[in-house]
Amino acid sequence: MSADTDSDPDIMGLDHTTVTGWGRTAPTAARLIRPRSYEEAAAAVRDCGARGGIPRGLGRAYGDAAQNAGGSVLDMTALDRVHAVDADGGTVLCDAGVSLHRLMEVLLPLGWFVPVTPGTRYVTVGGAIGADIHGKNHHVSGSFARHVLALELLTADGEIRTVIPGTPLFDATAGGMGLTGVILTATIRLQPVETSLMSVDTERATDLDDLMARLAATDHRYRYSVAWIDLLARGAATGRAVLTRGDHAPLDALPARLRRDPLAFRTARLPATPELLPEGLLSRTTVGLFNELWYRKAPRARTGRLQRISPFFHPLDGVPHWNRVYGRGGFVQYQFVVGYGREDALRRIVRRISERRCPSFLAVLKRFGESDPGWLSFPVPGWTLALDIPAGLPGLGAFLDELDEEVAAAGGRVYLAKDARLRPEVLAAMYPRLDDFRELRARMDPRGVFVSDLARRLSL
To answer: Which site in 259, 271, 355, 387 is 20 to 30 Å from 90, CA atoms measured?
Structure first.
């Protein structure tokens, strides 16, 4: 989880490095430290200084979760060894700085896949645990920490502790945004696959109710499920969507030419997005046109299409630095969940976003399954909507504050790994185990060694 920087992180201990999240909002200056061994990580924790430190990974937390104004930021990406793969039992032991991309490169040829992946494979294992990431398969598989069998955690006292599921320290660390310590290694249970291809079904939904009905009736048939939703459509078309679902293709579903190398992991990359783009590129007009074309080009119903893993799970990874498309002002990603039985709240929020004409072309709706044990883990059973909005949209802060109130009143919550502006007074209503988290953190880290801009903003 973490941030873009304007300096080379290979240099140990840079001062006054500007750090920001993937949304490129609210940059702050911190000392960037890149440990290359567990001993250097321990030394970095001891040397954090009065403003403390926070671990970070590959820069994909959207807000300020891995920023630390005036303090230290520990870039963990140099600790990136895959120590052992149990190809029979389906587990891997690796450093926390290993990316999901690297795990796929190692594991797919052996017939295994990561148990959970978000919309980018450029996230580290430590970040995946710290944010307790979820993917298109939460309704089946839960979030990432559910598949972690053990982890090694460097705590504020300099000790390296082996932490296992079912313990308070594990439940505080899963989704704890790096505030319980520095994850050094993890042992992860994997998903068996026969091929590196997906069998994908696609269909169009005419409005939000049609979409929710389709998801509720048939999601149990699919391991992976997600819907792109048009948040600029209004009237009878409010919430119209393209629903994409699938599973790992079995070997016998592949044509003969693909069976020769069924587990090959192939990716494609387009040229990087330029640093300087015209302001206002993502206006209501341009996004509305994009959404119209995207909806119209989608098939009304198509089944069994074979698709590579990368375009199915990580389409934006093919465009390096795609976050630059929002211009210098950056963007806010807003993701919330409301429980089953609170569909009226979801309808109201979608209608409000649509009526306000928020220019969002990256908006997805999914269903969550059972809650995960992390005290600050985001998923609860229900409907989750995520959308990107240009940060410079007039009145955006006040509008999102109103949505926060609506989400909290419905018993829902906002995702901390994507948050950049939530108010602390709303947080307790969203996360009922917040006091437990604060108590454990105070006991484990009385000097406040681990701290971030997000932690200060929300009084975590």
So the answer is: 259
Strand partners, 247: 199
d(CA 227, CA 241): 6
pTM: 0.94
- Integer Cα distance of 228 and 290 in angstroms: 12
Band of pLDDT at residue 107, cut at 50, 70 and 90 = very high
The span from the CA of 86 to the CA of 66, in Å, is 32
Does residue 145 contact residue 130 with C-beta atoms inside 8 Å?
Answer: no
Ramachandran category for residue 162: left, alpha or beta (phi over 0 → left; psi -120 to 50 → alpha): beta
Could you read off the pLDDT of 202-246 as tens digits, one per residue? 999 999 999 999 999 999 999 999 999 999 999 999 999 999 999
Q: Which residues contact 298 (CB under 8 A, 6 or more apart)?
A: 202, 204, 242
23, 323 contact by CB (below 8 A): yes
165: burial class by Cβ within 10 Å (0-12, 13-18, 19+)?
middle
DSSP readout, 193-212? -S-SEEEEEEEEESSHHHHH
The answer to whether the CB of 33 falls within 8 A of the CB of 19 is no
Residue 310, phi then psi, degrees to nearest 5: -60, -50
Residue 401 amino acid letter:
D
In whole angstroms, how far apart are CA 355 and each of 30, 138, 351, 361, 414? 40, 30, 6, 15, 21
Helix H segments across 335-394?
343-356
Compute how many other C-beta atoms are within 10 angstroms of the C-beta atom of residue 268: 9
Counting Cα atoms < 13 Å in the Cβ hemisphere of 58 gives: 22
Residue reference for tokens 């970095």: 44
Q: Please answer whether residues 231 and 358 qualify as being in contact, where contact means their C-beta atoms are separated by less than 8 angstroms.
A: yes
C-alpha to C-alpha distance for 222 and 246, rounded to whole angstroms? 6
Nearest to 149 by CA among 107, 93, 97, 110: 93
